[in-house]
Amino acid sequence: MMEAEKETSSVGEAAFVAIRADIINGRLRPGERLRLEAIKSRYQVSVSTLREILNRLTTEDLVVAEGQRGFQVCAATEANLREIGDVRLLLENHGLSLSLRDGDLEWEGRVVASYHKLAKIEQALLEGNKDRTPEWIRYDWAFHQSMVSACGSDLLMNMLSSVFDRFMRYHMLAVSFRGAAVSADHKRLFDLAMARDVAGAQKVLAAHVNGGIEHILGSGRIV
């Protein structure tokens, strides 16, 4: 590949990451029209590159293509949130069963480290430091990711990462932290993982994810 082509590819990939992050973090709002001429300077790419990026994001259901009318950010709806929750549980439960069966000492170390960081953030939130909610959401994902990281399947991990990002988008839109209940869920999940109790961990995970969905919907910020 020529140097100019490499540079163009690198810029395009950086713009893809930036736009995707802006959708997940709520900086680009549900239903917002993505006018190519208006946002090309924001992401410092050409209209043609921007069109390619937005088409890629349609495959993750983060952007909707409207034919000749262009693109817009996918709407945030209760039905979509519940569907994402169902898919997340399907993938995460499978990954959890494999990891609790096969996880070695290195896996345990990852889980312990990620739980320790998450617990620290949750304690700060419980003490009233609400500004750390976005940070908590990232540590939440790191903890859940560590729990399934011994599953032995890159495909499962990649699929779960994509689904979790879409689930996280709803958390960011709701700016929601569920308080002591979610902290207690994470402690139970951690304890059950260390005890290699698959059935117990899966039961807590289901209640945890569904409780999060109800909390997000209760925020009043989702249609």
Key words describing this protein structure:
single chain, 223 residues, mainly alpha, Arc Repressor Mutant, subunit A, Four Helix Bundle (Hemerythrin (Met), subunit A), 2 domains, 3-stranded antiparallel sheet, 4% strand
Helicity, in percent? over 70%
Q: How many separate helices? A: 9
Straight-line N-to-C gap: 46 Å
Strand ordering within the main sheet: 1-3-2
Overall pLDDT = 90
CATH class of the largest domain: Mainly Alpha
- Coarse shape: globular
The percentage of residues in β strands lies in under 5%
Main beta sheet = 3 strands, antiparallel
CATH architecture of the largest domain: Up-down Bundle
Indicate the structural class.
mainly alpha
Task: Return the CATH topology of the largest domain.
Answer: Four Helix Bundle (Hemerythrin (Met), subunit A)
Output the radius of gyration. Answer: 19 Å
By DSSP, the count of extended strands is 3
Quaternary organisation: single chain
**Regions with pLDDT < 50 over 5+ consecutive residues?**
1-7
Quick one: CATH superfamily of the largest domain? GntR ligand-binding domain-like
Tally of individual domains? 2
Question: How do the SSEs run, as a string of H and E?
Answer: HEHHEEHHHHHH
